[in-house]
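$ fold --in a.seq
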Amino acid sequence: MKSKTKPKPRLSRQDWIDTAIQQLLEAGIGAVSVEPLAARLGITRGSFYHHFADREELLRAMLDHWAERWSRSIRQQVTALGLDPSTTLFALMKAIRSNRAADYDAPFRAWALHDPMARAVVQQVDEVRLGFIQSQFEALGFAGLDAESRARLFLHYEMAAPAMFASPDAERDEQLLVERHRFLTTAHID
């Protein structure tokens, strides 16, 4: 009797990108190469070259995916709600958390420290993020350095806090999120 083994499903380009990003998160950019990825996927290298000309093309695809998934799509998701600026900022805080965007930022930023291509993408993403957040503060009536400072504080905290202040206390995290939102969106009184 013949063994009935199911053939492995064909891997897509996105499967390779997702696996490469997971490898980046776990072991850094140096571990993102064809051999370890193929081994992790349990296949030969041939599938890789069906989807990518070389490692450089995979790296570019990873950066594009990161910029889309953890920046553009979150911004579009929040903007589509049609909320006022204050509520948009609150929704953005929640979307960053629920999409675990901060978990993905650190490895891409570490990569950008040593790679001009990654650095350019990270800088572009930062400019777009900062511009969007600052525009929400400006719509609330903050101007100039005040709006920019609030936008930078927002971005720094939302992207760094999960790593720095990881907490199993979801209720406390929610209280802090509400307080942070109030702090940032309330006018400064001299």
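$ fold --in b.seq
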Amino acid sequence: MYDLLAAGPGRDAERVCIVADVAPAGASPRFPGQPGALAHHWILRGPDAPARARSLLAAHRAQSAWLAPMPAPPPSDDIPPETPVFGQAWREVFPAGVGITAAADFPGGGGENVTIVDIEYAWDPTHEDLLRSASDLGGVPDPTWAFHGTGVVGILAAGDNGFGVIGAAPLATVLVQAPFFEADAGFDYDVARAIVEASAVLSAGDVILVEQQFYGLDGEFVPASFDAGVREAIRAASAAGIVVVEPAGNDDVNLDDPAYEGAFTDDTGVLRVGGGASSFAAIPRARVASNYGSLVWVQGWAGDIVTTAGPPYTDLFYPRDDPRHIGPPPFVIARTAKHQAYTASFAGTSGAAAMIAGLVGVIESVAIATRGAPLTPLEVRSVLAEAGVAAPDGEVSVGALPDLRRVLRSWLVP
């Protein structure tokens, strides 16, 4: 059994997460003011925090304790081989894509009835194709990986504005929640808190996309659900009817491995997304370095996704000497090349999960328009899995690739 209080990669040796019925001395609530299971999560800080946590466990005054996760880099957006695609094939009719284009035929098909929150390090709100696509919700962004959030927001909801790209749900309200929060000694990285704060502004049928990953037991990258606090935050959101989408991660990890002590077989209601090969690959829907397991429900493309981007992902369009001006006076905004980057190679389960989150937004928006109520998170998982095509025989499964048109025709519209 692994010692979750031992120093290791991606673990904060001076911040310990604790589950206890009564607040330990010197601890602060991890989720202030939250009811139920979330009310029993606490944070101990300081160089002696691990030793104090061990004492609490030995005295049976805490149920569990672990070093708080530290931020890991987002999954790589460059899974070779790169295949430049100068269109958005992922939006096309299944099996060429996932059928986003069919949504235009259905009420609510632009995602206009839902809000999607992307839990993301940062994004570029001045990108020419995202000026009206999203806004910040809260947290403190870290611009180091802004290109990643820019790509994800583009997949979710880049506007249908006559240039660039179009997102899966271009009329949805998209909010970006950063997972860093001001603390006495700087900033805390806390994905669970980000989920809780996002949930507070959402309603049943809305979507949370958790574009984060954690270091696993031996430094491998695994889903954020590795943290018990994240699992409880997801469980609470799911119980409120909010669909939480989580990338499976890109490290060839079997998430059912007993070493993880059930962290990834605890069904919180999350919609976990694996990464499969695009329709351009020799074997479409085959697993592409994706983590896998029994609770990886569906897959999205893990490569060849055309979307908005930023340096270093500028392979599709990056006119260094082509400044742009967007909008009529008095709203003229001078553009420089760094705000015009596009890529044809966004990849990994980050791209796959963003694709599926956008698709879920469309499904829920159409459900609200046609049925008067959204599907539950478990219903969403079920219809996506049933309306998809799994990996080819002989391939390790990362779930079925959904066909949105089939979902809308067979499950939602009379």
